[in-house]
Amino acid sequence: MTELEQRLIMELGDNFPIDSRPFAVIGRRLGMTEEEVIARVKEFIDRGIIRRLSVALRQQNVGFTANAMIVWKVPPERLEEIGGTLASFPEVTHCYERETLPDWPYNLYTMIHRPYREECLAIAERLSQAVGIKDYKALFSKQELKRSNPQYFSEERE
Amino acid sequence: MTGHEKELSEADRQLLSAMQQGFSPVLQPFQEIAERLGVTEEKVISDLRRLKANGIIRRLGAIIDSRKIGYTGTLCAMQVPAERIPEVADVINAFPEITHNYVREHDYNIWFTILAPSTARINQILKRIKEQTGITTVLNLSASRIFKIRVNFDLEGDR
């Protein structure tokens, strides 16, 4: 990735102008035209580098204070199917398969954010019934110690 | 912190819902959002600036797929005695590559994520955390497959 591409990604991700012509503002910062910036954004979207242009909300500040990480122990041969089913629930924000360890047999992870703890538990139970897996645990967050935006390319920049 | 949501007006909820759906790489993306909502572009821009300034919006712009630009991430868990949590959290959080760190209700009570340019850097960070805290049991649960990442809070539905 060229240095200009790296700078463009940082401007688009961390420094996006809330302005009538945001891509023109970014272009002025980087010495590109507005059209060039838009063309690169479309290209990054096509390549999957940019998932979407959107907002990330601070979950506590919009009332979604209950945050449950549900860990599932799923037979390996059913992972594909169950991962797809759990991911299809709109309440599930993240669904990952992860490596297991001798001390930690859970191989599928789903995140649920809701206003109330009881809702998370009810959703987990619905997910459990939908896929027929009873071996799961809901790990609620008690305290946020850190939540920061990813720092890309900083080591190249120092 | 429950109760903050009461500060969100109906108009704010509609705006944030539209923004969560995404905006387009066009000349005036906020004009498009404004047309969807039936308000002016000026209102969309001033409301978004306010919601960003007061912390409702954590970030606005391109959501990057970190793996596509060569970054690699993992989820780690540690068992930390309750009285040591603040001190251990300071050690962990000092690394800029740590993006999330939560106390969770489990024997493994500290859960954090690392996002770094290489597995070698992740292993180096974990080694330093172990050395600096003296806690040697750290689960490193790297993702082998991603089925979904789509954080979208339903701000308008039945609550």
Kindly describe this structure.
The complex is a heterodimer of chains A (158) and B (159). Chain A has 158 residues and is of the alpha+beta class. Chain A folds into 2 domains: 3-46, no CATH class; 59-140, Alpha-Beta Plaits, CATH 3.30.70.3460. Chain A has helices at residues 3-14, 22-30, 34-46, 79-87, 117-131, 154-157, and strands spanning 50-57, 66-72, 92-98, 108-114, 136-147. Chain A has a 4-stranded antiparallel β-sheet, with helices on one face. In chain A, helix 2 (22-30) crosses helix 3. The mean pLDDT of chain A is 93. Chain B is α+β, with helices and mostly antiparallel strands. Chain B folds into 2 domains: 8-53, Arc Repressor Mutant, subunit A (Orthogonal Bundle); 66-142, Alpha-Beta Plaits, CATH 3.30.70. In chain B, 36% of the residues lie in helices and 26% in strands. Chain B is built from 5 helices and 5 strands; from the N terminus they run αααββαββαβ. Chain B is elongated and about 60 Å long. The model of chain B is unreliable at 1-5 (pLDDT under 50).
